[in-house]
Structure of Phosphonate transport system substrate-binding protein:
Amino acid sequence: MKKLLAAALTTTALVGAAQAQEIKEFNIGILGGENAQDRLNAYECLGGYVEEALGVPVKMFAPADYNGVMQGLLGGSIDMAWLGSSAYAGVYIQNPEAVEPVLIKVNLDGTIGYHSIGFARKDSGITSLDDMEGKVFGFGDPNSTSGYLIPSIEIPQYKGGITMEPGDYFGDVTFVGGHEQTIVAVNNGDIDAGVTWADGQGEWEDGYNNGALRKAVDAGLVDMNDLVEIWRSKPIPEGPIVLRTALPDDVKTTMTALMDGLYETDAECAYGVTAGESLGFRPVTHEMYESIVAARLSKAN
């Protein structure tokens, strides 16, 4: 797959001319979870590569929440996005033909999963979920895998017999808007604990190798020495890069090759796009996400 990138970029003029007759622009959605301008800045380098490869203008969209990107893909106004597993499942449930999952991020050790990480301030005295009774627990976005879906299933299993309803075990359960908002809210003491996503590899002090904590450290938002991990989910399949199914086949082939080879082409650009250190991407299919689709359906019933 990576060999396709060189061919795609060396035939830019021919490919771009052919595709310009079918698409007039290419729109990339950037999932919520952090400041919109930071998201746009991280993807700026990618936009240049896409314009070169397709020969059409590229527009970036950074909606306030996950649903904005999901609805853009469903409505045809967004052509490509890197979705979380739950957001992909949500799109698939609404329209199985809307998008195609093509690539999945690879961690430094070759794995393709991540974790929902529960965390609190170190000076709060909270070291596990056992210390969270009566406390305020924050979640990011209802369409987030690590920021809601998986912890809403696994935490009640961990603390058998509880629910996620405010006032049952936790004093309150609240949505704060996204991963960055959750991290800042915990760090500022606005909520007692929250959940976010990370590969769980590398050093805690660095925010691990990859994920929202790493991005928060890079942005200077937190000092990880002020925080402590209090819970970790089972491994979650990394979300897919998806392409709108209705795109011309040559556009999908070119974009898949470009994204698959981004790490080798520009490691710094890949760092920003993938939220930290990684080995880039590898091919993936819908089968990887069938358990997440089932989990979303179970929560809807």
User: Anything to note?
Assistant: The first strand starts at residue 26 and ends at 29. The chain has twelve helices and twelve strands.
